[in-house]
Amino acid sequence: MSKKSISYIITLLLVTSLALFGAGCVGNDGSEAEMQSIMIKGSDTVLPLAQAEAEVFMMEYPDTSVSIIGGGSGVGIAALIDGEIDIAMTSREMKGSEIENAQANGIDPVEQTIAWDGISVVVNPENPVSEMTFEQIKAIYVGDVSNWNEVGGEDREIVVLSRDSSSGTYEYFKDEVLEGNEYRADALITPSTGAIIQTVSQNQNAIGYVGVAYLDGTTKALAVDNGSGAEEPTSENILAGTYPLARPLYFYTNGEPTGLALEFIEFISSETGEETIFEVGYFPA
Fold this sequence. Notes:
CATH superfamily of the largest domain: Periplasmic binding protein-like II
Number of domains: 2
Order of helices and strands: HEEEHEHEHEEHEHEHEEEHEHHE
Radius of gyration: 23 Å
Number of strands: 14
Distance between the termini: 61 Å
CATH class of the largest domain: Alpha Beta
Shape: globular
Strand content: 15-25%
């Protein structure tokens, strides 16, 4: 075959492909399939779970598009209130003031529990401290303790890391561990859970808190004791209810979910979806 003939065939294939693309996707029955899409935004804790679920979902349903953005629970809730997204993902319940703002804007938030998570208090693997009580963690985070030797460690200044106030994990940790007290003024505020993992893995003096799905071996998760004995953040302890820092994770929609949003939420609770929840490191609702 001549080079001219080969060139002609390649050109014809390209034109045909572009024509098919412009006409839309073609379904299995030969009919044109219209692309469906939803936008999800919010919690960095829920982010890896939602991304993993979306990847599997779109492989099974190639005529769909699920776009996911992190930023924190508060960011997702604000976007839902403003009508910018289809689903807000959060690691805390919506506040009464947020629900009032939503309703004033014509939005009716409906809550869906999609999974359960455990919060891990993490330190550098070189840190000799392996467990702490709630009282010790609280003392560090409110500013009463500033040296590791006060909690069984070496004579080193503690570098305290926290998420920002838009994070649901920030709110949960403040309520459950700090008992509503304010974080110490010199705590280093990080924009994402990944930033906490990276900093703690590189700084022997650092301490932070993250969702269990972010544990990757570069940090050490402490066993924590709220008065009933120290428990590690293992799947067995979280499922048994003995690990004290476990919580539900949520999706919020405007009204009862419909269309692709409903299909995606139902997929998460399916057998395939629950397998993905376990694989990511969370636990089915």
